[in-house]
User: What shape does this take?
Amino acid sequence: MDIGGYFPPCLQDLAHHHIYGNTWKLLGIVEDTGNGHQKYNRAFQYFPVRQDLKKPCIYSVARSQLKMTEDYNVGKSLVRAADTILRQSLDLRLEDHRVVGVIEFGKIGNKALTFDDLQNIGVNIDRLIIASYTSADDELNIYEGLKQYKYVSDSTYPVNFSWYTIKRRAGSDFQLILLCDRNATNFNCRAILGESIRSVQAAMMICALNLYRSNRKNKSNSDILTLTNEEEIMIARLWLQHFGRMK
Assistant: This one.
């Protein structure tokens, strides 16, 4: 089971299990996230073609309908997490800001503003607050030159943000605030996803069972696999039967 795509760099070694003395056998990998799905897809593109090396069987639930429901709930929880930090640390409310931008509108944002972008921000914007939501290994990279503009507080009270005052080319100042000091907000402020996550966990278990069955039949696949429509419908029905009664 993988959540975030941490095994692609060593995928070839995992497939070449006989170098470890045949003490274990890799049945396959089940990936949960869209970020991890992309990593495995790239790893498959560069996987060497050799007779003594077979691609590991990989299942992913990242493109399933069940995962889409979880993603929707994750989106709501992340907004609540950002609002919580703004209220507790800066005495601000997200609803008071008229403009909210989403960079790279996908499962996981992967674009960060460059320092030049910051210097050219319009004169009608005097404060920019950035919250990053992503995997722990894909957080924002901060330009080294930005550190000289960081406000250093004398307070010993812990804060969940870093504050920069940057001079525009036109001469005026504007403030940049990075929530959680550029780290992923979703790991700093835990947000409750509810029971929708149970359906995705069930999907991963079904994928693991499929891996076991395919290995017993000695089947191999060159693409990333996912659940069938019938399997998703079965999981959804079981979820409704159990958790629907709890509401």
User: Anything to note?
Assistant: The first strand starts at residue 29 and ends at 31. Residues 8-60+194-246 form one domain. The mean pLDDT is 76. The helical segments are 11-15, 34-45, 65-90, 115-119, 185-188, 196-216, 229-243.
